Amino acid sequence: MRPTVHDIAEAAGVSLATVDRVLNRRPGVRAETRARVEDAIGRIGFVRDMAAANLAKSRIYPLVFIIPNGDNSFMAGLRQEIEEAIQRSPLERTEIQRIDVPAFDARALAEALDSLLADPPVGVAVVAVDAPEVHAAIGRLREQGTVVVTLVSDLPGSARDHFAGVDNIAAGRTAGSLMGRFLGGRTGSVAVIAGSMLVGDHRDRLTGFSERLNEINPTLDILPVLESQDDPDAVYRLISKRLAADPEIAGIYNLGAGNRGLIRALTGLRESHGRPMVIAHELTQHTRHALLDDLIDAILNQDPGHEVRSAIRVLKAKADGVPVIDAQERIRIDIFLKDNLS
Amino acid sequence: MRPTVHDIAEAAGVSLATVDRVLNRRPGVRAETRARVEDAIGRIGFVRDMAAANLAKSRIYPLVFIIPNGDNSFMAGLRQEIEEAIQRSPLERTEIQRIDVPAFDARALAEALDSLLADPPVGVAVVAVDAPEVHAAIGRLREQGTVVVTLVSDLPGSARDHFAGVDNIAAGRTAGSLMGRFLGGRTGSVAVIAGSMLVGDHRDRLTGFSERLNEINPTLDILPVLESQDDPDAVYRLISKRLAADPEIAGIYNLGAGNRGLIRALTGLRESHGRPMVIAHELTQHTRHALLDDLIDAILNQDPGHEVRSAIRVLKAKADGVPVIDAQERIRIDIFLKDNLS
DNA sequence: CAGATTTTGAGGTACGTAAATCAGAAATTG
DNA sequence: CAATTTCTGATTTACGTACCTCAAAATCTG
Question: Is B202 in the same domain as B87?
């Protein structure tokens, strides 16, 4: 049988109350006694039964997720995962609230963050927008004692406790690697579409992509970035125009959202002549079909389910002052071809 | 506040004892009363607090993992993950025992399985070897009421309850896809190394690889499979010989273990002329370095940590008669390039 | 060394569920 | 309708931890 608090008490020759004081960092224990108890804990290998502890505490963790309300599939997937986490709430002793804010709107986001100050939750997960007012709002929450993690989109240099998302420079490099290798020694130009160059993630992806592609095949010509605001229709217009201007385009990399527009543009192309190599981000029902239909060659993905669950784990751990196992919380960059669609 | 058993009792107008009888499928409840209680459960949205339930039951799940004792890095990684699960045991109410058996030895494996019959654990996870005696031994365990999941290597057609591993045909197809695309329109021959064609997984990978590579580039010539018994030295010898015989070889696919031998053979090659395209399985410290050193182009991976944790979840769930969420337990085929090493 | 203060002990209740006992009510049987 | 069987209620204990109170002991102060 695994040791309990009673065993600690016996091993240390103290009472249960003292053990409890030590375990829960309550005052009123001499340093010497504390050491004796801690020694006993180590000796008999006691591990607190979190289930029982949570039961006794009937602790719940009020958490808030703030995400942009754009209608792109990735955010829809993220929203879905948050909803599922809300369903699981009673089992995980969390109480999760989801707040939607307009996309790319730093002001609205900062206001949403500040609205939490009145009744601050234990933790907040937020899809960050890179702006001073957001920095400041996060700082205010942190000062209140609220744990803040950025989700999907980071805010380096801010007071956030953790980032639950991928390394976007590495993601860009991975895309560049695939593009370079898939195109082999071919020459020609490569089109790149982003949501907005004002978003840190998108800048990072572009940086990584350009660097890596240039390493592998310097003869490829990376065209100036097209900005879509993550709007499928804009993606469609921009890509169609580009393809019309240069039908011999060798590759397309969409590092932002709006893949539906990309797919639409490619579908039209298909019948006429061979299509360019296409790499995009985020596995959704649309990109999944496009992969299977040979309209897209590779999809880079970050699993929103992992991100949400990781964010929750980290928020709870940091709230309890428990260390986070970084390796476990690292979000991977998944590569999907039509053959390994999970 | 979330509803408790007391709330069910009140809502259904019955006593706590009756609710308990219904919840835990104990006899002595009229169908009509049972229905009333179940209706109330649904109506008020009761979800059993598993933490409290386990606490009350003080249930522990005795589990056994049986794995081959080969010294290749993948199995070492698997062993490591099992050890970590053993460390976590007290927290997860499991009691895990690890049994090592000689690799590729059906007789020894069957004996190990049969040895459990005396004091059968709740669940067994086993890296299967495809042989009639293993089928039979698994059947006997199942009849005893023990849950059996195959790990890494499946035994289709046997009585196992679940398989915690990847779809190896899809893994082979993914490798074929990458090889075909990375080689572009090039012609030449592709060498394939396997551990043993007697192992189902390896046969599956070869099937998928050949199919897919042939679809993409039929001019590539897939050479007859080399069998290494997953021994690094054998891999080194076989590959070196093959490379000496045909220095113009376009690609190498190692679908088995023994990557250390492959890497050694490639290191020698490096200085002389360009090396072939290389794809292998399982991310280990060796293959990781080889990726970073540009000795290997892509690694397909199955995460042993995921497999072990999934196996434990499934064993516990099946032991409790709780349904398993298949989507959650699907083990992905990860693709790693040097750029997305997690 | 008296008095104040800090430290420790003993014991209880609570969390939500499981599991048991025993008595009483209802339904079924002959 | 009495005897039996089946079903249901009321109550209790237990799981391991948290947290509270009150009293007793030890230590520190001047």
Answer: no
